[in-house]
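Work package 3, deliverable 3.1, input record:
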Amino acid sequence: MRSFRGGVHPPYNKATQDRPIERVSPPERVVVPLSQHTGAPCEPSVEKGQEVERGQKLGEAKAFISAPVHTPISGVVKEIAPHPHPVLGEALAVVVEGGGEMEDWPRGDVDPDSLEPEEIRMRVREAGVVGLGGAAFPTAVKLSPPKSIDTVILNGCECEPYLTADHRTMLERAEDCILGLRLVMRAVGAERGMIGVEANKPDAMEALRRASDGEVEVVPLKVKYPQGAEKMLIKALLDREVPTGGLPMDVGVVVQNVGTAVAVTEAVRDGKPLIERVVTVAGEVGRPGNYLVPIGTPFSYLMEVAGGLKEGVSQVVMGGPMMGIAQRSLDVPVVKGTSGILFLREVPPAEEGNCIRCARCVDHCPMELMPTLFVKFAKGERWDLLESAHIMDCIECGSCAYVCPARIPIVHYIKLGKLKVRSLK
Amino acid sequence: MNPILVSVLSMGLLALAFATILAVVNRRLSVREDPRVEAVLEALPSANCGACGFASCRDMAERIVKGDAEPGACPVGGAESARRIAEILGLGEVEVVEKVAVVHCAATSEQKVKVAEYRGVTSCSAANLLGGEYACRYGCLGYGDCVRACRFGAISMVDGRPRVDVERCTGCGKCAQACPREIITLEPYDRERGETIFVACNNPDRAPAVRRVCEVGCIGCRMCARTSDNGAFYMDGNLAKVDYGKVYESGNWDEVAEKCPRKVIHSTGRVRMERAA
């Protein structure tokens, strides 16, 4: 089966893969950060005290690499102020109070082959669609590549342990996935469409194949972390290597997460902005599952919906356990990049040992880097050497830290190193 | 011929030939150095700390002599070295403001509200990536990056926050660069009074938000701005600041510090610290 070099096999713990996506009734108060994506934050387009309708724009994207945000509930704008943010620590956010039950967004109709690429891009941009895999890169930017694209890949790997949001999306929204893929192919002018799925989700592959009528290739991939990293995915599917410092478009490829494809479908076909997303809530809670959550819902609210905390939780992580971000507070809202919220019993070991030069990190690094050097240089504050050792190519997948017998928090050192390298430029 | 004589003669001739070559080369290729560089180097502290931004003390000495750097550019040497350098170069009087590092957060680990347990690389800049253990997003993280950055052993961690020994502090600013939250700044040191006055808080939030995260943070009550007799304290939003152009002329500094309900106006002065104790 096709795959890539390196990687690891963490226990998958996908206990929620049989739980259908459940819509969460919205809280009375949502906190919608103006920066939920890679790139420039958007600027508020509403005022305090203004009444807003569900789906109305709260923030306008002024820069090219940016995305607007919309309100998931109808109500009144209470304030525009800094609020805790799960990724940035704190960021400007629009608070809307209101609520009421949510109905399904009215469904539209569209023929992907009759739409102009520019029209697709415009609708995707207006809907504020960003990559839902976690990095939250504005999708409209990916749909405007300056280079020619021959293949669009949908990423259905979901290689992070615990997370099952994409798996459920592929099962329950297979047709929307396929339509989303067609729309993306149309927008970038690609001939070939592929969907890469890890081989442990045969039901999802079956659903996608049925929905696509054989027009796109659904390819099973080896179950190995980080199969869902876009560079690994391209290597496995097409045997192309993205050059150092480059992007998938440099090898003629655009990669989109399956959840993003559904969001593209909803944006283009129904005119629905990105106001809710599927979030896997897993770990030590009463009712773990996959929830369709309005953007801006506080983690604490979602925790109550999912049956409350069980005994012994010591860490709350946004995203998967390998690449997710540990949270300091449950006041943070669900943002567009929140693929999951994990309530974990275990915490990382407190004691870090010395490097024994076993090179397991080097063996397992999917990017073929030398993580052991990064730690050495970061400890010695040799930021110049870090850059020449290609630290910027690291995708922070955490395979190195996972296999390290000395329990060195390698990725943490790398993040610190990248910060320093960037600040020295 | 006597073999001893032969070897002595041949070796002697060889030595003479090489000595001549060396003598000629020494004349031809000699580098003449400005004697002032050596003199300026003498006047510098020779710590090679890099705080001035140049590669070494010697590098800086050369630049000063060339005129690419000010005589007072060495933050470590301070007024004394600037005066000597100016003398060597015949520049006359130069004025250098002596500065020391002050830490704009004085909350002990107990006074800061703790919200999480941090496990990871024990460095402030690494912990700052995740927000650290304490609720205050502006306060000291407490892992001592500044202590490690100081070449002069002037900073130590006391009760979870850094303490600067002003006698050892040279004002090089390495600690200020190391702090990821920019809590440390260099401020004028008044030698006559033996102190630097500063506000030991960096949180610009409004009072309720500050009270939630810290027992001793500045709540922006404007008391210092109101009580100061010459406007030496002013408000930057919700945070009190010191106007260093006026503060050392202020007569009622003690009263202002006393009136502060959060006691965040501090002095580095040892005399005052003793008096307070």
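Confidence is low (pLDDT under 50) at residues 270-277 of chain B.
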